[in-house]
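Ligand: magnesium ion. Inputs:
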Amino acid sequence: MAKQTKSTKYVYFFGGNQADGNESMKNLLGGKGANLAEMAGHPALRLPVPPGFTITTEICNYFYQHKKTYPKELQIQVTAALSKMEKLSGKVFGDPDNPMLLSVRSGARRSMPGMMETVLNIGINDKTIKGLIKHSGNERFALDAYRRLIMMYADVVMEKGSGIEPKGGKGIRKMLDEQLEAIKHSGGHKSDTELTVAELQQLIKEFKRTILKTLGKAFPDDPMQQLWGSIGAVFSSWNGKRAVEYRKIEKIPDEWGTAVNIQAMVFGNMGLDSCTGVAFTRNPGSGENKFYGEYLVNAQGEDVVAGIRTPAPINAYSKNAQSQNLETLETLMPGLYQKLHGYQKRLEKHYKDMQDIEFTIEKGKLYMLQCRVGKRNGVAAVRMAIEMQQERLIDGKTAVKRVAPNQLVELLLPMLDPKAELINPVLAKGLPAGPGGAKGRVVFTSQDAVDWAHKGEPVILVREETSPEDVDGMHKSQAILTIKGGMTSHAALVARGWGKCCIVGCGDIEIHHESKLLKTKNGTVINEGDWISLNGTKGFVYGGSLPLVDIDLDKNISYNQFMKLVNKTKTMGVRANAETPQDAAQGLKFGAEGIGLFRTEHMFYGSGSEQPLFLLRKMIVSKTTEERKSALKALFKYVKKDIKNTLQVMEGLPVTIRLLDPPLHEFVPHNAEKLKELSRELGISLGVLRRRVLSLHENNPMLGHRGVRLGISYPEITEMQVRAIFEATAEMIHAGKKAFPEIMIPVTVAVQELIHQKVIVDRVYKEVCEAKKIKKIPYLYGTMIETPRAAIKAKRMALAADFFSFGTNDLTQMSFGFSRDDIGGFLPAYLDQKILNEDPFQTIDQDGVGKLIRLGTEEGRETKPRLKVGICGEHGGDPESVKFCHRIGMNYVSCSPFRVPIARLAAAHAALEDEH
Ligand code: ADP
Ligand code: MG
Ligand code: MG
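Predicted complex:
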C-alpha cells in the first residue's frame, strides 16, 4: 500500500564497516540497498563495499504523488551523506583536483534484472576530468569513462527520463552508438578499447553536439545537476514500459516503488590489473556446490551483463565451450581470487542461501558491488535445497520452502528424445543456460514472438543478445537462443528465473535480419518460421521438430530425497485424476496416494472405444427399458474390465469412480454412415432413429439431462456401473488383492438423489456379495459437490454420503454463470480491466466460490464429523488453490498426474504456513 510516511529519514548510509540499514529492510531500501548495507555493516561480513547511500522506496511513492518532486529534507540528507562518502574515499564530488564519481542505481524489493536504469561515472565534466586523469594516470581511461557517462545520461536521463519519444523510432543511444562505430571504423579499430585519446576527445565533442541538436538541451556540466537528474531518471524508470511489463508478468505490485542507490564508483576498466565480474556461490544451472562465475579484464560491469565480449571463467570449474581457452581469474590474480572465494563462502554462510554477487577489482583492490539471493532453475533449486539441508546449513522446513511448487514443472518437463538426438546432426552449439528440451518456429524479433504466439504458434526467439525490451517476447516463446552473451547475460538470467529452455552464446550462428534467416557455421540456412529444436541442458541446436519425451525422475537423486522431505512435511493427501491404467501408473510414480477422479465415460473416447461406444449409442437411443437393458448388458463387461484394470494398478489405494456424467446426446453420432449402422443394429428405420436422436437435443446441455439425473431417469444405467464396480472389486479380493473403490454420484443438488441411488447400490451390493460368495466388499459412497445448491445443502447431503469431492470446474461455472468453454470472449477484458484479478478456472476464487467450498466442508462435517472431503477439479493442481484446500481442512486434493508433485509441494508449503 502506498501510504504517506511520517518518518523523516530518507537516506541510509553504508560504507567504512558500518551501515544505517540492514538486510531485513528490503521494503524500505530495496533488495540491492538492503544487501549493500548488510555486506558493508554486518559484523560477520564487513566486506569492502564502496561507500554510498540509499534513498528509500517511500521517496519513490512521494515522487509519484507529488508531481515528480521530493520532500525538502531530502536534499539536506543527501548532501550530508555525500560529505560522509567524501571523508571515507578521500575524494570530493565535483572537485577538479580529485573528483569522486558516483553510480546511481535502481533497486526494488524484488530484483528486476535490467528492467530499470543505472547511470555510472556521474561527476565528470570538462574540469573534473583533469583530476581524474591526474589520479588515474590514464587519460584514455578517463575519456572513455566520460563518453560512457554522456551516452548513458543522454539516453537514461535526457531522453527516457524526460519521456521523449525518439523521432522515427531511433533513440539518442542508437545515434551515439553509430557515431562511436563510425570513429572505430575510420580508425580501423575492432574494439572500443583501441580508441585513441584524440579519437575519444573528438567523440565527446560530437556526442555533445548531437545531444544538443537532437534533444534541444545541452549535456549538463554541473555534477550536482547530473546527480539529481540521474536520481529522477531512476525513479521514473519504475514506470518505464519494460519495468511495468515485467511487474505484470512477475505479479509485483506497482505500489512497492524502487529505492535509489548512490555509490562511489570503482573501476574495473583501469587497465590490465582491473576487472569486473559476476559470480554465484553455487552453480545456478545445475545446483552443484561449486563457486561459479565469469569476469572481464579491463571492463566496466555493464560489459559483462550486456554480453558484448565473451567473458572469461573465474576458475576452471566455470569453463565452457566458448571460454575454455581464456585465462581464469584464479590463475591471473591468485591472491585476489582467494579473497573473493573467502568472501563468497562468508556470504553464503551468512545468508544461508546461494548468492549472486557482483565484484570489481580496481588496480589490484577487490570491491563487492552487489549481492542477492541468486536466481536458479527448478533443477538447481531442488538440488541446492536438499544439499544445503544435508550440509546442515538450513533445516528441512527451510529446504522445503526453498523450492516454489511451480519450479518442479521444470523437472517434469519433457526433453528432446535422446534417440532422435543421436540421428540428427547438431547444427550449432551454445551454452546451456536453461535446461530441458523445446521446439518451435524461428522468429527474430520479440514483437514477432508475441504476434506468432498469439496466433497459437510455438516459437523460439533467436536474437544476437536480449535486452530488457525483449522480455514480453521471451516470455511468450518456447525457448530462447542468443548468439552473444554468457551464462550471466540478460537472456540467461531471465530464462533461469522462468525455468525456460535457453541457449546463449551460440556463436556458430549468424542472423541475417534483412532476409529473415539464420546461417550456421556449416552453411545451413534456417528461415523465419522454420522449426528448430533445442537441448537446453547441453546447449545443442537441431534443425526441424524433434520429438520430446518425458524425463526419468528415478535417476534424479536430489529430487527423490527432496520429495521424501516434502511427504514428511505435508498433512493433506494428494491424488491423481486418472482413467487409464497408464495414467494411474504415472500418478503413482509421481507420488499419488489414490485416484480422486476416475471418469467412466473415458472409455468411450479415443482408441479402443469403437465397440463400447457403439453399445453406449445403442443404449442411448433405446426406446424401451428392455432395449436399454440389453444394450447395457453388453456394455457391462467393458466397463468392468476398465475399472478393474485401474483398481489393479492402484493396489488397494482409494479410487473414486464417478458414474456416467455427460449429457447422453454428446455421444450420439451425427454422420449418416454411423446412423445407418445403428439403425440396422437396432432394427428400426433411419427415420425413426433420427427422430429419437432429435428428441435428445437440449438447448443447454451443461444444465440439462446429465449426471445423477441420468441415473434417476434410467436406474439401470446406475445399476450396470455399480455392478461392474462391485464385481471387479470382489474378483480382486478373491484373487488375494486389495481394492478400494469409492462410488461418486455426479451433479447432485439434493440428498434425495443420493438416497434414491443408494437404494440401487445397496441392492446390487447384496446381489454381488451373494453371487460372489463374499461377506464384505469395502467401498465408500459419496458425491461430487459441483452445484451451488449442493454446497448450500451440505448438511443434508452428508446424511447420505461418506465423502464429498468438490468438482470446482462446474462449481465455478455455475457460481459465476460463466461457461468455461466460452470465457474467451469476455474474460480477457475482465482481467485487463481488473474487474477480476484472476481467471477463476485456474485458481480458486477464494472469497466467492471458495466460500461455498468452505461452507460445504464445514456443514457437511457438522452432520458427519469424519466426512472425507477432497477436490477433483483442475484447481487441485494449482498451488494457491491447494493451499486453500489445506486451510479449510480437506483430506486430499486430486489433479492430473503431472501436477501431483507440484500439489504435494504446495501441500507441504501450506502445512508450514500453518505453523505461524
Ligand atoms: P542491475 O540491477 O541491472 O544489475 P546495477 O545497479 O547492478 O544494475 O548496475 C549496472 C552495472 O553497473 C553493474 O554491472 C554494476 O557492477 C555497475 N556498477 C554499479 N555501481 C557501480 C560502482 N559503484 N562502481 C562500479 N561499477 C558499478
Ligand atoms: Mg546488478
Ligand atoms: Mg462436473
